[in-house]
Amino acid sequence: MLIFKDIITGDELFTDAQKYEEFMGAFYKVYGKTTTRNDDLDPSLFGANPSAEDGDSGAAESSSTQVIDFVDACKLVEAPAYDKKTFMAYFKDYCKHVAEKLTQEGRTDDVTEFKKHATDAMKYIKGNIKAFQIFTGESVDPDGSVGYLDWEDNVPYILFFKHALVEEKV
């Protein structure tokens, strides 16, 4: 299995368990699905046996939440929405951090590719910024990568800059 981590923070952003494809030469477009997560705590985990203690059958109100599978699995955190001005400020610093990190790791070909596609990618995100929900990795580091989530034919997808990822085989 491959885990794709943010080059800056090391946060896990997605795995190859999700369908993904290259998009515009700059992104990985990761497809997800909505699923129901059961938020109930099992009383037996705490040594309780409700049916034996109070004559309760153990039937408690169930609590569940609709989630997007990769958001839930990788503990992505929704961030405040960007306007165009906020996005441009973030993007300028982000590109600098990614290029520095790629250079430190000796990935000079990736620096060239990243810079080659950055302008078109920036224009695409900026032009669609109101449609995207923004997600960060679990650390919520403001310098780290963010994902741009949208929907296509009732299927959620998220975009991550592919050159800002480190693949880890497990």
TrEMBL record:
GO MF, one annotated term: calcium ion binding
User: Which InterPro entries does the entry link to?
Assistant: Mss4-like_sf, Mss4/transl-control_tumour, TCTP, Translation_control_tumour_CS, Translational_control_tumour_p
An example Pfam family from this entry, by short name, is TCTP
Regions annotated as coiled coil: none
Which residue intervals define the domain TCTP in the entry?
1-170
Q: According to its UniProt record, which protein family does this protein belong to? A: Belongs to the TCTP family.
Name listed for the protein in its UniProt record: Translationally-controlled tumor protein homolog
Q: Which gene encodes it?
A: LOC100185755
